[in-house]
């Protein structure tokens, strides 16, 4: 092939004009793959993935659909929408799907926010929140977590102004693993004006066993401004296929569909999600195993002297402050890639028992070395 000559004058022409909002964009740090160490199985426990491979029935559905990928997927995502409606006991008109719940979140921001509008959420929370907000030209209003790494719902209600269009409540919270309580959520929702949309991001719902956890679907049924956001990426183990959904009242759901990228949910994701809903009982057994491992890990860490807040998702939060980089490095040296957050702490996914055992070893050694 011959090289294409550079366009005449391209070097000294005016720079292309890009949106100013991009300059303010926080960068999404994906979980790194584990460093390979000789004689040691490496584990990537930095992205809250499900350690189990796809169920045979789900794989078979994906294989069956693979032969048809020369065709566009169903634009309306009809079969999955119907299956979700039946699964959740809501009308199909209330379901809006997207490429991962991050995709749906993007639709939510674009459906509600004009330039300079405000999106209120806790911090630390899910990294995608400030990115999607800023990309849409809206302003992130980040409300510090309360002691115990929990949402400060009273402060979040105080942070709502005339410019607020959206409030994101992440429960369990990524990366701190804590849930909001049913009663405090109720009191919070009573305070939020009805024209402000509240999203309850339940990416980790299936792992929750706290008795005072909220019933997000009941709140959605009772309040036109409450949206429930869920994903097939975590408990359902379909992170690589990208599919999530919102349950929203009809005008909102319609707006979300209007903001969706056409054909955003691919055909393999659609069949895999339907097959996964059909196998919900089988998946629940795996979720139970992960929750049991979480409880084992948290109990052992507390035994070692760590102060771990109540953990309700498929990961564990270490509130390490300045020791964050050192702990992450100690994990990496043993073939465990965890997710450090600045000088706040480290999040480690609950994975295979062997990975969890190794995490406990590293954590125990780190703790003894630092704190006797
Ligand atoms: C993982 C996660 C999601 C889901 O991401 P997908 O795009 O569905 O893979 C949403 N919210 C939170 C808080 C998460 O941690």
UniProtKB/TrEMBL annotation:
InterPro entries (alphabetical): Aminotrans_II_pyridoxalP_BS, Aminotransferase_I/II_large, ArAT, HisP_aminotrans, HistidinolP_aminotransfase, PyrdxlP-dep_Trfase, PyrdxlP-dep_Trfase_major, PyrdxlP-dep_Trfase_small
EC number: 2.6.1.57
Cofactors that this protein relies on: pyridoxal 5'-phosphate
Gene Ontology terms: biological process: L-histidine biosynthetic process
One Pfam family cited in the UniProt record for this chain: Aminotran_1_2
PROSITE patterns in the record: AA_TRANSFER_CLASS_2
Matching Gene3D superfamilies: Aspartate Aminotransferase, domain 1, Type I PLP-dependent aspartate aminotransferase-like (Major domain)
Residues found modified as N6-(pyridoxal phosphate)lysine: 234
Alphabetically ordered keywords of this record: Aminotransferase, Pyridoxal phosphate, Transferase
Every Aminotransferase class I/classII large domain range: 45-361
Enzyme class: transferase
GO MF term set: aromatic-amino-acid transaminase activity; histidinol-phosphate transaminase activity; pyridoxal phosphate binding
Catalytic activity entry: an aromatic L-alpha-amino acid + 2-oxoglutarate = an aromatic oxo-acid + L-glutamate
Subunit structure: Homodimer.
Task performed by this protein: Aminotransferase that catalyzes the conversion of aromatic amino acids and 2-oxoglutarate into corresponding aromatic oxo acids and L-glutamate.
Similarity comment: family membership: Belongs to the class-II pyridoxal-phosphate-dependent aminotransferase family.
Name assigned to this protein: Aromatic amino acid aminotransferase
Species this chain originates from: Phycicoccus endophyticus
